[in-house]
Amino acid sequence: MRKVLTIAGSDSSGGAGIQADIKTMIMNGVYAMSAVTALTAQNTTGVTGIMEVTPEFLAQEIDAVFTDIRPDAVKIGMVSSSGLIRTIAEKLRFYEAENIVVDPVMVATSGARLISDEAIDTLKKELLPIATVLTPNIPEAEVLADMKITTKEDMVTAAQKISEAYGCAVLCKGGHNLNDANDLLYYDGCSEWFNGKRIDNPNTHGTGCTLSSAIASNLAKGYDMKEAVRRAKAYISDALAAMLNLGKGSGPMNHAFDLCGRFKESCV
Ligand SMILES: Nc1ncnc2c1ncn2[C@@H]1O[C@H](COP(=O)(O)OP(=O)(O)OP(=O)(O)O)[C@@H](O)[C@H]1O
Ligand SMILES: Cc1ncc(CO)c(N)n1
């Protein structure tokens, strides 16, 4: 069985972060492991508290995983401070980790800031250069490419700029467009669109975490970058189309969409 490690924050409401990552990995057929960067007190309406682990403890978590069950891919999500980012970069370099998917999480769907300004600089210097693929949404791509994105051409330009700056593939996610759900992959000097039908579902809490974990799972299983993205996009579309509606704000997705067919009575 292929193994995937998520290095991310915990979401107490289970829709994003570590919880979304593990659900996604299980449903994509890989063994899921986690190194928690922070606890968040969070629900579908917002984040009320963040408690970070120390860089030393995060290092211990990563050591524990790599010295025993070596992951075939690593997904990195919420990392809110420079010390934690440096620890991750140092450890992943030391262990020569492969298939590193970085979701540069900056703001939660509910609007809460999940990273400090100085940490964005450290992210750029330390972590992005070791990534295999980055998955910014449009506001994150604007920060990383230092430009405004208003058109499809802007998405291509920004993805190319980021890809050339950090030497990795870039998937610029279009979930923040209101008309479509088309994502742009810039990879090996070429751009390719992954078009998705926009699903009329306001419950999008954790879409970014889910997509990046699905990409990591598919890279771990040996699919190439384009096929890993295609499969991940199909997974997120199915999870959104299952139309789960929980909580008072932007709710989570249904990762058990397959199982709900199999266990119809118990899934109501
Ligand atoms: N309403 C929708 N219908 C179909 N696909 C969607 C929809 N909203 C988002 N997506 C898809 O979900 C994936 C994640 O994109 P999005 O831009 O929402 O990421 P994000 O902003 O990082 O997520 P998060 O809100 O978790 O931080 C992309 O593949 C995007 O196209
Ligand atoms: C812990 C955590 N990671 C990432 C996100 C981004 O959706 C979130 N809301 N919470």
Automatic annotation (TrEMBL):
GO terms for biological process: thiamine biosynthetic process. Pathway: Cofactor biosynthesis; thiamine diphosphate biosynthesis; 4-amino-2-methyl-5-diphosphomethylpyrimidine from 5-amino-1-(5-phospho-D-ribosyl)imidazole: step 3/3; Cofactor biosynthesis; thiamine diphosphate biosynthesis; 4-amino-2-methyl-5-diphosphomethylpyrimidine from 5-amino-1-(5-phospho-D-ribosyl)imidazole: step 2/3. Keywords: ATP-binding, Kinase, Nucleotide-binding, Thiamine biosynthesis, Transferase. It catalyses: 4-amino-5-hydroxymethyl-2-methylpyrimidine + ATP = 4-amino-2-methyl-5-(phosphooxymethyl)pyrimidine + ADP + H(+); 4-amino-2-methyl-5-(phosphooxymethyl)pyrimidine + ATP = 4-amino-2-methyl-5-(diphosphooxymethyl)pyrimidine + ADP. Pfam families: Phos_pyr_kin (PF08543). GO terms for cellular component: cytosol. GO terms for molecular function: ATP binding; hydroxymethylpyrimidine kinase activity; phosphomethylpyrimidine kinase activity. Residues 11-254 form the Pyridoxamine kinase/Phosphomethylpyrimidine kinase domain. Its EC number is 2.7.1.49, 2.7.4.7. InterPro entries: HMP/HMP-P_kinase_dom (IPR004399), PM/HMP-P_kinase-1 (IPR013749), Ribokinase-like (IPR029056). Belongs to the ThiD family. PANTHER family: HYDROXYMETHYLPYRIMIDINE_PHOSPHOMETHYLPYRIMIDINE KINASE THI20-RELATED, PHOSPHOMETHYLPYRIMIDINE KINASE. This is Hydroxymethylpyrimidine/phosphomethylpyrimidine kinase. It comes from Eubacterium cellulosolvens (strain ATCC 43171 / JCM 9499 / 6) (Cillobacterium cellulosolvens).
